[in-house]
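hey
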């Protein structure tokens, strides 16, 4: 099963690279295919990172504009999605640095032992449909409270489906630092949701 999934991902990556090369050679329909395939995930990435739909739209459009400008020099040394999200990540950094002089994206976390790439499925196991909905809402709120680097790493992992290695390439930090960020985010989210759920439970 795992091998089949990896094969599917590899086939998708190769298809994206072919489309990008075709677009670089002048095939505009190839760009449209890439745009339709990745527009949803990329837009959600910006919305969740910024919390501002207008800003997210601006950064989203600028990302695709940079893809168009860079098409001629595109190389297949990295997966298209890794390349695309690295552009998005760099635009986000540029925006944050323009607004806030302190670099919120600095690598300020110690590198510790390897961690799982996902939270275990039983961490937020619902007792009912109502609890599931409440905890999902609490989780979204807790994600917004994460430090910027942890939040981005978590969203790239859980929402965009990138591996820790791919995220390390996108944000240009070490694999160990990326795994630490995922681990810290998982721990913080678990504690945050548990605390907020306790508050909800006490109000009943």
């Amino acid at each position: 099963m795992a091998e089949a999934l990896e094969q599917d991902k590899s086939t998708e990556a190769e298809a994206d690279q072919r489309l990008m090369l075709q677009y670089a050679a002048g095939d505009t329909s190839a760009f449209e295919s890439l745009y339709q395939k990745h527009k949803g995930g990329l837009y959600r990435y910006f919305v969740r990172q910024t919390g501002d739909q207008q800003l997210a739209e601006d950064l989203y459009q600028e990302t695709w504009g940079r893809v168009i400008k860079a098409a001629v020099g595109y190389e297949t040394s990295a997966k298209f999605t890794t390349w695309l999200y690295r552009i998005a990540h760099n635009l986000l950094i540029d925006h944050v640095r323009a607004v806030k002089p302190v670099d919120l994206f600095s690598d300020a976390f110690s590198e510790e032992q390897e961690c799982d790439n996902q939270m275990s499925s039983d961490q937020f196991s619902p007792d009912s449909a109502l609890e599931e909905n409440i905890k999902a809402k609490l989780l979204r709120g807790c994600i917004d409270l994460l430090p910027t680097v942890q939040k981005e790493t978590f969203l790239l992992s859980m929402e965009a489906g990138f591996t820790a290695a791919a995220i390390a390439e996108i944000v240009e930090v070490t694999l160990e630092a990326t795994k630490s960020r995922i681990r810290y985010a998982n721990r913080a989210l678990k504690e945050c949701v548990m605390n907020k759920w306790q508050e909800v439970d006490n109000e009943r």
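The chain has eight helices and no strands. The CA atoms of residues 24 and 72 lie 5 Å apart.
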